[in-house]
Amino acid sequence: MQPRVIAVHRSGSHSFTKYAEEAVTLVPGLGVQGDAHSGETVKHRSRVARDPSQPNLRQVHLIHAELFDELVEKGFAVFPGDLGENVTTRGIDLLALAEGTILRLGTDARVRVTGLRNPCSQLDRFLPGLMAAVLDRDAQGQLVRKAGVMGVVLSGGEVRPGSPISVEIPPAPHRPLAPV
Questions:
Q1: 83 vs 97, 147, 159, 179, CA distance in Å?
Q2: Do 19 and 10 touch, CB atoms closer than 8 A?
Q3: What is the dihedral of CA 167, 8, 107, 1, to 10 degrees?
Q4: d(C-alpha 164, C-alpha 2), whole Å
Q5: Is the Cβ–Cβ distance between 36 and 16 less than 8 Å?
Q6: pLDDT tens, position by position, 82-131
Q7: 25 and which of 3, 33, 47, 151 could share a cystine (Cβ 3.0–4.6 Å)?
Q8: How, if at all, do strands 135-137 and 109-116 pair?
Q9: Which residues, if any, are the signal sequence (predicted)?
Q10: Could you tell me the residue ranges of all domains in the chain?
């Protein structure tokens, strides 16, 4: 199955969830037009409090729809946009991508993956137990963060549900994703 965008979201305020849109526009070096997290420097409140001059490595948040499938099976009524992502994907293992992977969303937009979303306690305020449900352990006992990936916009364009996704793997050596 060709990887696809299944939903797009944005919010002009720092709300936990984002609202479904027919399309969003990605702006190079900024993020999702009209989204509270758009900008060259950090917009996440806790990061702004520490150092507002840091580069914004979290311009676009992507989550795989397969996570929502897993959460619903565990009894959590959680659906695209509920966890604050801008782009919900299907058919691509976002968590297995290397740092620096470029995702082409639709015909023009390109996002460079910068790292993992580090789940926070807001998840439990949204639904008790959700934070633990988006964390796991691999065979070696290492923590696995399943709440999606973050990226920066390299080239802009419109992204809408149904847009195809293509993957450009960076040159070796590949670095695994770490929280950003």
A1: 20, 8, 19, 16
A2: yes
A3: 50
A4: 7
A5: no
A6: 999 999 999 999 999 999 999 999 999 999 999 999 998 899 999 999 99
A7: 33
A8: unpaired
A9: none
A10: 4-168
Look up tokens 């037009």; give the residue: 33
pTM value surpassing 0.70:
yes
User: Phi and psi for 64 in degrees, rounded to 5?
Assistant: -80, 135
On whether the CB atoms of residues 160 and 20 are closer than 8 A, the answer is no
In residues, how long is the chain? 180
Structure-token pair, residue 56 = 């914004």
Shortest CA distance to 16 belongs to which of 121, 134, 116, 88? 121
Whether residue 125 contacts residue 175, with contact meaning beta carbons closer than 8 Å, is answered with no
pLDDT tens digits along 60-82: 999 999 999 999 999 999 999 99
Under 8 Å between Cβ of 152 and 141 = no
In this structure, how many other beta carbons lie within 10 angstroms of the beta carbon of residue 144?
11
Cα–Cα distance for residue pair 75/139, rounded to 1 Å? 25
Q: Is the CATH code 2.40.33.20 the one for domain 4-168?
A: yes
